[in-house]
Specification:
With 393 residues, the protein is of the alpha/beta class. The protein is built from 15 helices and twelve strands.
Length: 393
Amino acid sequence: MSSNLNRRDWLKSGLLASAGLTFGQANQVSAAPVNHLGILDVYAEREIELVHEAMLAAAPQIKARLSSNENPWGPSPAAIKAISDAAPKAFLYAGTVTMELRKAIAEMHGVAPDQVLLGAGSSELLMASLMMAATKGKVMMAETCYISGRDAREDGATMPMDKVPLTKDYQYDLDAMATRVGADTGMIYICNPNNPTGVMLPSEKLHSFCDAVSPKSTVLVDEAYIDYAPNPATDSMVENVRKGQNVLILRTLSKLHGFAGLRIGYALGQPALLKELRKYCSGGFTVSTTSASAAIASFKDKAFQEMVLKNTAESKKFLYDTLKSMDYTYLPSSANFVLFPVKIKGQMLLQKMMAEGVSVRSWFFDQQNWCRVSIGTMDEMKAFKEAFAKSVS
């Protein structure tokens, strides 16, 4: 791969493209964050800004924020108490408590502490992984997945990505991906359950894929939504890490644990791989004392996690029933959001929904418009039902 590839510009341009911005437009975003490597994280920040701007522009009171896959029931009371208890020590760097958190995560997954790398949310670790992969070759991924929109550069150059179409049932085509792995494949990215589709791979098939492909290239499995899967323990690819394979797993507490604003994520992998990954991220230094303390408490609060899963399932069923009653099909979801095709252009739907005080997301792929709805409280889902009925009538 050419040494002329500037990793900073490469990732920056990809993030901008995914947010629908040019470099010139991004320069107008004065508050956009820059991490310690100089990478402009416009993807997450600008996306949030756009949602907030639309909310402010919409006259009615916001009734339901269903655009960011957040957990409306978290964080747990135990996590909040841990934040309060840790606050007086917030003047200290979080070294001791992050060591405790790494140990807790390692024990939870049956790996060694040096197989755990912390990050301020999994986004930091994902960006670092892509940068690491860019030094080795192309990143293989599904044509429609969380990072697939990051493929345009200001100078028109081709991004180092290899996109593989989804199957007709909107699943990763693992067979096709396996045959395309070559010397120029720097990493294989799999989001499972996938975002934005919510579709999940059969665990046996993904395990076999990792067995066969990981000796050839690193397999990154983004498990941001794995907690909502039917059997999170066995649906995860952690077992492949335990077997010593070249598999990198990313996890976040932003979903089930309600930590989207607290920023805790982690990677699981072989010590040598994580050591290399540390070159492209903070190595856990960005994790705060209060957030790390809250994470330790949240992991222990099983009753709260069960409540969130129960409420999510009830709200999801309500959404399914709503869509069925309106003669809309949807993709069965193993995450805390649902994607379904609509007969109205995405931006028009967003504007109409926002006018009713409800925020959702839109996509266009497979020659049709799609709407993604995050799972909210029952009151929020009822607000969605009313707003959606008005917006598509």
